[in-house]
Write a structure and sequence with these properties.
By secondary structure, the chain is α+β, with helices and mostly antiparallel strands. It has five helices and three strands, in the order αααβββαα. The protein has helices at about 1-10, 30-40, 50-65, 115-120, 125-135; strands spanning about 70-80, 85-95, 100-105. A three-stranded antiparallel beta sheet has the order 1-2-3. β2 (about 85-95) and β3 (about 100-105) form a beta hairpin. α2 packs across α3 (about 50-65).
């Protein structure tokens, strides 16, 4: 399954994901140039390319520590039925490990720290939906 996602990913190379696209095995200068180009394309000014590479390295370490045999694919398209609705979108990252899957779907919020918890809880209803769709 991951091989199919990788093939689709290569054909539709995402232009929005710095962290999911990055690979630590690539030349650091090229990684930095790619991150800079992506951030500029999307007019991101409050997050530097170096910050993006640092975040990418931290995500890699998290995956290595928790899912060492996992295969990660970024920007995975999702289309799935849910009751009488159709869910369509992209998962930021799908990690397959021994028949199990982990979904990483980043949510951003530029509000103040005191509002983070309330905002995060607002996404809670989608978690069981994502879990159920990932098991099919």
């Amino acid at each position: 399954m991951v091989a199919a996602f990788r093939a689709m990913y290569r054909q539709n190379k995402p232009e929005v994901s710095v962290i999911g696209y990055d690979a630590l095995t690539r030349d650091k200068g090229q990684r930095l140039a790619d991150a800079t180009a992506t951030l500029q394309r999307w007019n991101v000014t409050d997050f530097s390319a170096l910050d993006a590479l640092t975040a990418s390295e931290r995500l890699y370490m998290w995956q290595r520590d928790r899912l060492p045999a996992g295969n990660a694919v970024a920007e995975v398209p999702v289309i799935a039925p849910a009751s009488e609705q159709l869910i369509q979108g992209r998962i930021d990252m799908l990690i397959e490990s021994g028949g199990d899957f982990a979904i990483i779907d980043h949510k951003s919020f530029p509000g103040c720290f005191e509002l983070w918890e309330e905002r995060a809880l607002g996404h809670a209803p989608s978690l069981p939906l994502m879990q159920g769709r990932s098991r099919q």
